[in-house]
Amino acid sequence: MTRDTLNVDVVIVGAGPAGLMAGTWMAQTGVTAIIIDQKPHRTQSGHADGIESRTFEILDSFGVGDNVWKNANPTIDLSIWNHQKSGGIKRGDLLNNCNPGLSRFQEATLGQGQIEQNFLDFIDSFESVSVKWNTCPTNLTIFESSEYPVQLMIQTRNSGMKEHINSTIRAKYLVGCDGAHSWVRDTLGLSLEGDRMNEHWGVFDSIPLTDFPDIRKRCIIKANAGHLMIIPREKRLVRCYVQLLPEVAAALKVKLDPETLVNIVREILSPFSFEASSLEWASIYSVAQKLCPRFSKYNRVFLAGDAIHTHSPKAGQGMNVSIQDTYNLGWKLASVIKGKARPMILRTYQEERLLIAMRLLAFDKRMVEGICGKESDSSMKGLTSISDSLRNTLQEENTSSSGLTARYGPSCLVTPACESERRRLAGPLLPHSRAELAGNMAIGVRFNNAQVLLQCDSKPYNLQQVLRSTGEWRLLVFGGDISNSAQMKRVQQLGLKLVEEGSIFCKTDPNSADRVGEIEAFLIHCAPRKDVEFMKLPEVFRPFDETMGYDYWRVFADNDPYGEGRGNAHRLYGIGTEGCVVLVRPDQHVAFIGALEDLSAIELFLLNIMTGL
Amino acid sequence: MTRDTLNVDVVIVGAGPAGLMAGTWMAQTGVTAIIIDQKPHRTQSGHADGIESRTFEILDSFGVGDNVWKNANPTIDLSIWNHQKSGGIKRGDLLNNCNPGLSRFQEATLGQGQIEQNFLDFIDSFESVSVKWNTCPTNLTIFESSEYPVQLMIQTRNSGMKEHINSTIRAKYLVGCDGAHSWVRDTLGLSLEGDRMNEHWGVFDSIPLTDFPDIRKRCIIKANAGHLMIIPREKRLVRCYVQLLPEVAAALKVKLDPETLVNIVREILSPFSFEASSLEWASIYSVAQKLCPRFSKYNRVFLAGDAIHTHSPKAGQGMNVSIQDTYNLGWKLASVIKGKARPMILRTYQEERLLIAMRLLAFDKRMVEGICGKESDSSMKGLTSISDSLRNTLQEENTSSSGLTARYGPSCLVTPACESERRRLAGPLLPHSRAELAGNMAIGVRFNNAQVLLQCDSKPYNLQQVLRSTGEWRLLVFGGDISNSAQMKRVQQLGLKLVEEGSIFCKTDPNSADRVGEIEAFLIHCAPRKDVEFMKLPEVFRPFDETMGYDYWRVFADNDPYGEGRGNAHRLYGIGTEGCVVLVRPDQHVAFIGALEDLSAIELFLLNIMTGL
């Protein structure tokens, strides 16, 4: 070892959204990490800008969602315009751009640089993670028998100096988030596979001066002069994506003249006027739908984001899927590094995310075809102005594609939904869920939000907010109607079992500062809250600390805020008055659903993946 | 003039909530001000902690509400406990502590020091206002003929040094927010008048270790051993107010022993256990309900907060009424200093706030009597556990007392509600409102919030959020159903009148950085938003700027977010499909309600108070 060698748990290559999300997990869980990036600083303008509801939920789970949400511009309307025979363009459909109720957030736009800044601010508030700009990797070697098997040589350009500084990072794991031209991927001998479509687009951000009336709505415009997508942004910015003829694209590749793009937009929007004021970013690109079929090697090096999937920016998914990749990976890495989980759980990263990436590419293909395909003339009455296919595709954008309803299949981290699903799985016969106990909750899907009230003071509470991203698992006990004494007895018995000597839950420490791999229990009941006495509830739901008193923030009443009747959470999840238990992973995905008596199944499931219990 | 003389527009004595609110207005409007305080720094612990909904609205109007709201603890339940004949205490009523719908915020608690810090952070982000700690006033002289008539001698203690530094501040106005023992008030020869009740209380903040089940609810407990009020706070803190016997109070005045207070609380809560962990503040006080009948002198020096009214902390109103005092005064001072309004408007400060202070004292008296008076034994069936009088008082706490429904009477800043009310007023015959056009809106009361949608992109918007505290007046044009062509014509004509040469609205500059005294116009219509074309609306509601494009943020559709029908704003305000215009003061209070054709009445009203138009 020389002076120039640094040992860390994780080295992350690339400080874009995927790399910073990985770094955020490491910071939050106290894992040491270094993020390197060849750029001198974060993204300054342009690039990605769409933020899906699921991404907001993820940001919120680290406490960095507020600021992003406050500055972002929600896109609520989607306006479709078509050419008309008589010339010019005409508004066809005006659709909702989101499905209310699927999330407490909705799709919004904010420049990638600002998202990155939020991650950087978060990371900066912890000591375990640092970012090294102006730095690129030069050599990667894996020594499996070492404590730090990953050896990455790096080169840092010093600002103002011509020479480079070479040094070495030794790490337990490497995460390659270095984009479509990933050095890490290439070095592993992997590559992106797939098609480059013959589609060329230009994009620019500006403050538009226009009398086009829908300029603050998301628009898809299909004019004879070409296709245009309008994405209203934060402040007064608007992004225009405009389709280019191959020869125009070729010329712009030689010399990017934003005015050419502005002129095409003006032509498409005609007879409406259009000028671009404060033009702050412009670029051109060709649509390539490509996938790297392997996301990891040696169970030591993992790829994420554009390094494993590239596609068009049509649906604003890029930044989201990339963030969601490392959101899936980060807690698993932390759990293994902290000795809380077996390394085999890392294999679920590819199992879970490859399917998502494949679906994304198929979805993107339909999206590109829907937007670029010719539609019927909107001036012809009796015909819808967009195809059913595009309409369905747009609908999908707001559900599975955005991550809201994305389902991770059965694995060591997600129980099968029923006995027959379990039989189809290879490996040891682990427990299956009793999915029917929460009929509207899907195993493997992220836990949807419902509003409940804190039992202690009736404060409204988003249940998703107890699922903060700390590396902890949560056992959500839906107690049902505990004003019924038989039901209350079941909850009491469950409470006793949880604190029994030798119980897996008992081995966790509610007051430990290191939360990775711990299990927190919460109770949500649907009895009228005035009929429930806090002090008569099982102690596991109200742990006592000698200096901090009781923990009053683990019991919730599923009641109306100002009434006394039942609230909506049990109904939303399809849970009856007999209740159920739901085990939620550290990334908010549902791992198991069972009856109040099914604790042993949960133990079996957790013992299979956890170490040190 | 010596080197030690500083000229500012406003000198503020006292950096508590009232003084900092005044300083916040000055910072926001670009008026130069200095705030002096004899303390070495802001409040560190204890003191006031109740924040009413109206105060949140005010903080939010400066953009500092989010942070306070996020950290505060909403008090939703109010639990009443009484002694029972068989010994111990028993829960009587469990009431709602707020009226949902009256505000988008609700009552919450947060330590005074944190509120002050939010104000200080805001002020710190501007250059025109500074805070000078360790500084007290020593002499006050008024020279009416000078440009800076107020001469205040001050003395600053340098930290670490024994000697004092004397200097002089010359200002146009002085605001005395220096508390119950106000030096400014005494120097003006004014005094607090009223009674000291024979009520003595102790108060402390701690993390309670207790099995008392309602510890996280606001409680009023009437035990044989004494009376106790419990106020749950941010984090795990809880405040206890406990009634003291005169002899106990006298002893504690000599030497404040918090353990004595804790013991009394333990006795009152018996048979429940009680220990105070992390006791962070304790104090004792006697209830004194006093009022200074004059709030200003020479129309140059103004008093606010505890300097003019003291009362019990029972209803958590102190900090709120103090903040609301200077919220009322600040924009008036800024308007006069900037030459936008005649100095006579300053006289409305006392007219408007004296009545509020008198009501507060009467309310506080009922509150103290209700809480300290004996109630019937709650174990006797058929009797309510609290008196109707206390119940009514608690109800009032959430409406007029909190500022939500406080009404400022007719004056040069509030039009009379009808012709007969106008006749009763002295002075020139200025216009009166047509209150019936907005049947549920009260003239002189703060403009209540309703949610509408931005016309341009359907984004949900709290109408109150357009009423930011910038010193601007707002003309809210409720256009009614403009899908009706006759109604649209009325709105068009109003739009033309607003931009007519010589119109009072035309004399204001939408792009001027200095917003004090400007008038902003907004349109809220209740036609289905898809039937309304933005570009066909009057230009005054969509001003165009050559580099920033159209202003899309002045037109709102009163629609359901995901439907197309009418929303709730027109209904909430009692406005029909024929619409009306509402003129709102810079402090969000309604000044005038009229028909779409009543512009000349508004002009007459404004010309009477404004200068330079």
UniProtKB/TrEMBL annotation, chains A, B:
It comes from the Eukaryota. Belongs to the PheA/TfdB FAD monooxygenase family. Residues 8-363 form the FAD-binding domain. This is Uncharacterized protein. Residues 407-611 form the Phenol hydroxylase-like C-terminal dimerisation domain. One of its GO terms (molecular function) is FAD binding. Keywords: FAD, Flavoprotein, Oxidoreductase. Gene3D superfamilies: 3.40.30.20, D-Amino Acid Oxidase, subunit A, domain 2, FAD/NAD(P)-binding domain. SUPFAM superfamilies: FAD-linked reductases, C-terminal domain, FAD/NAD(P)-binding domain, Thioredoxin-like.
